[in-house]
Design a protein that fits this description.
Elements (H helix, E strand, L loop, with lengths): L2 H16 L8 H20 L8 H9 L3 H4 L1 H20 L9
């Protein structure tokens, strides 16, 4: 997969993850979350992943600024969705770690 295809896929994935709660977030909050998610996936794409990587903590940190807006149930759901996506991303052949 070409780098521009990977970047587009990462952006689409981030939008898909946050889609269930996007309407509850302000434009600024949504933009910030999407930007942080894109940055995280880009880093996962280029850096070797340590065996002890805590994807749950990474996802928690990304969504933490909007926790009060979402409420506990939706916040937990979003953290779980992002964590699962990160794990799946790192197990897929999307990553370009050989080049990094």
């Amino acid at each position: 997969m070409e780098m521009d295809e990977i970047h587009a896929a990462i952006e689409e994935l981030a939008e898909h993850i946050v889609e269930p709660v996007a309407a509850k977030l302000s434009t600024e909050e949504l933009g910030s979350i999407l930007s942080r998610m894109n940055d995280a996936f880009q880093q996962l794409n280029i850096k070797p992943i340590a065996a002890d990587t805590d994807f749950g903590n990474m996802a928690f940190t990304i969504f933490r600024p909007v926790q009060s807006v979402l409420g506990e149930k939706e916040f937990t759901r979003m953290v779980g969705r992002l964590k699962g996506a990160m794990v799946g991303f790192c197990q897929s052949d999307w990553t370009d770690q050989e080049a990094g």
